[in-house]
Each structure stands twice: as C-alpha cells, then as structure tokens.
Amino acid sequence: MAGPSFYLDALIREFSRLPGIGPKSAARLAFYILKQPMSEVEKLSQTIVDLKKNITFCRKCGGISDTEICSICSDATRDTQTICIVEEARDIITIENSRGFHGLYHVLAGVISPLDGIGPEELKINEFFARCRDEEIKEVIIALNPTIEGDATTLYLARELKPMGIMVMRIAHGLPVGSNLEYADSATIIKSLEGRIIIK
Amino acid sequence: MAGPSFYLDALIREFSRLPGIGPKSAARLAFYILKQPMSEVEKLSQTIVDLKKNITFCRKCGGISDTEICSICSDATRDTQTICIVEEARDIITIENSRGFHGLYHVLAGVISPLDGIGPEELKINEFFARCRDEEIKEVIIALNPTIEGDATTLYLARELKPMGIMVMRIAHGLPVGSNLEYADSATIIKSLEGRIIIK
After folding, report:
1. In chain A, which residues have their Cβ closer than 8 Å to the Cβ of B71?
2. DSSP string spanning chain A?
3. What global pTM score does this model have?
C-alpha cells in the first residue's frame, strides 16, 4: 500500500524482492538506510553495482573471480591433484570458510535433472573431463547437495571418472555436528548408518 | 575471511552490517545480486541512494515525507482533531498499514529515558504542545511502545495534556491477536487483565 513517501515505498519494494526478506524486514532495512550517513549509504549502493560490474567466473574452475583465473586456481600452495566438484560457485565459499579442503574446485553449474531437461551436456561436465585429461588429477571429491538429483549426478560422474584411473570420493552424509538424533529425519539416519566408519 | 573475490567479500561485508542480516544471509543476498541482470542491480543501487537523497521529515508531524508537509498531514479527508503520538517515524507506516486510524500523527523521536539523559526537551514534545495550541485537537491517542520508558512518557504526556482540555487515550496492551495464553509472558497477562473491557 502507498505510504507517505514514494522513495521509501520504492526501496521497501526493492528490498522485498531479495531472497529471505519479507515486507517487515524490508521496511526495517529501509529505515536503517534512512538513519545512516550519506557516505555509508553511497558505499553500500556502489558496492552492489561494483560486484555486478567487476566479477567474473574463473575460466578454469567456474568459481567466482575478479580475474580470468581465480585466486584459488592460481594459488601455488594448493594441492592441484585433488579436485572438489560442487554444484554452484557459492558452494566454494562455503567449503573455503570451513578451511577443511586445500585442493582445487570445479563448478558443475547445476545437477543432472531429466525432469527439468538438464542432462550432462547442460552442465560443465565436459569441461571437467577436459581438465581430467589436461591436468594430473588423482582424487575427485564430489560434494553435491544430498538430493535425488545430486546423488544421481554423483553416480554418473563416478561411473565416468573411474575408468580414467581417478579415485572418486563423495563427502559424507549423516548427522550434522551439534544436532540431535531425536530431531533427525529418517533419510539422514539411514545415510548416517550406511556411512558408518570404524572407530580406531 | 578472504574469498576468491574482493568485490564479493566487500558486498557480503556491507550486507552483514544491515540489521537482521548475518554473514550467511549476506552471502545469499550477494549471490542473488550476482545472478540478477545489470538493470535490476542498478535499480536497487539507485533506489537506495534515492531514498537517502530525496526523503525528508514532515515539518508538522515529524513523519517520513517527500515534501515539506507529508501526504498524511495534507490529506483533507483525514480527521484533524485526533492525533496519534508515536515514538518513531516508522511507527506511522505500521499504523497506516493496519488501516485502523484516520487521524493525524506526531512523532516524538524517542521516549523520556533519564538513564540515557533523554528528558522531554530532547524530544519533539514542545512541538506537540505548540500544535495543541495552534490546531483544534480534541483527542490524543498515545501509541508508544509498551516499555517502562514508553509507559512513563505516556503518563507524562497525559498529565501535561489533560489540563488543556484534550481527551488523552493510550492504545490497549494485551494478548496479540492469534497468540496463545500459554505462551504469553506474565507482564502481558497482567496488562490484558487490567485492560479488560465489558462484553456488550
């Protein structure tokens, strides 16, 4: 509905379109903007456009980058023989934040989903096979989301990669750390049982 | 921590500073921005700066406005004899959205809070008394937040306004619609009992 300011309504409308931001959060954000000094507001506004203007995708791994080859792919200290395959570029950031992986990445840009008309050709799978030929890759860790499509894509990749003599792994599916058996769904419990490991 | 893109990190940092936006939401928003067409991103960026550039506060009520006198104060169809007193300009939007009030508003820009060094002089209270002299006000509805400071400010205003022959009311405090007695706190229960009304 129309409020006392066209500009306020416009910004609330823009904010409401962002994911996870409802009308109330959008209003709270707009009023926060209103209270900030102009310099801060201009900085936010500029940073939004700068991202879109300056960012690109790494020609090698498909991840977010400011340069043709991203800082991860060009980092000489990383393990170039281990590649982690992820669904989306943002998954790289999530895994990097965990500091639990020191190899390189490859972004599929989706998963195989016949119902949505997405086959291997629609994804960056051929690009990955090309990397397997050009680079000396020993281990591939598939880190797709634990969905039906993610699992099917994982199996497809494993079947294609094994004949190349590459060790193909997938990340463990099970109970998240800090969670409670009582609240876990059956599918997760089953995965956690299937994926059990020996206590040494 | 530093990710593969300076621009992405910068925007995540900017978004994280907004109220109610944690690092994970900030990352989700930044990736959403990345996927939008440039025209949409420029529109969002421009709308943010436009708000700050163009908005002002109504000289009469202190509410958000694009003009010297806001669209509510200058709306000839509204009841000019009933004034609703609110803490912040954004409270006007909340009440307007409810469509339950058709009078005018006055923004105090805070509440009396001796511990924070905020007395009546720091608020727009004298401005309101001036309005009471200049305008023909019959009823004042005090709609401050139900806090200790809000209640104290309500009592202060009531004491000052009553001698002017103005009917002073405050909004009801009690159980929110759709809520459950079981989950209500004792202070709200007490307010709801105190504020009981006769069922006709």
Report:
1. 4
2. ---S-HHHHHHHHHHHTSTT--HHHHHHHHHHHHHS-HHHHHHHHHHHHHHHHH-EE-TTT--EESSSS-TTTT-TTSEEEEEEEESSHHHHHHHHHHT---EEEEE-SS--BGGGTB-GGGTTHHHHHHHHHHS---EEEE---SSHHHHHHHHHHHHHHGGGT-EEEE---SPPTT--GGG--HHHHHHHHHT-----
3. 0.74
B115-163 pLDDT tens trace: 999 999 999 999 999 999 999 999 999 999 988 999 999 999 999 999 9
Complex ipTM, two decimals? 0.74
Residue in B20, B31, B51 nearest the CB of A8: B51
Tell the burial category of A192 from Cβ atoms under 10 Å away from its Cβ (0-12, 13-18, 19+).
Answer: middle
Q: Show me where the domains of chain B are located.
A: 4-41, 77-198
User: A interface mutation test: which of B16, B46, B64 has the most A CBs within 10 A?
Assistant: B64
List CB contacts (< 8 A) between A11 and chain B: 47-48, 50-51
Closest A-chain CA to B47: A11
Instruction: Extract the tokens encoding A72.
Output: 């991860």
The chain B residue lying nearest A69, using CA atoms, is: B4
Nearest CA-CA distance, residue B100 and chain A, Å: 14
Interface-testing mutation among B9, B48, B93, B107, with chain A (most A C-beta atoms within 10 A): B48
| CATH number attached to the domain at B77-198 | 3.40.1360.10
Contacts A5 to B, Cβ<8 Å? 55, 64-66, 70
Q: Which CATH number fits domain B4-41: 3.90.1150.180, 1.10.8.420, 3.40.50.300, 2.60.40.10?
A: 1.10.8.420
Q: What distance lies between CA B108 and its chain's CA centroid?
A: 10
Q: Which letter does DSSP use for residue B113 in this model?
A: B
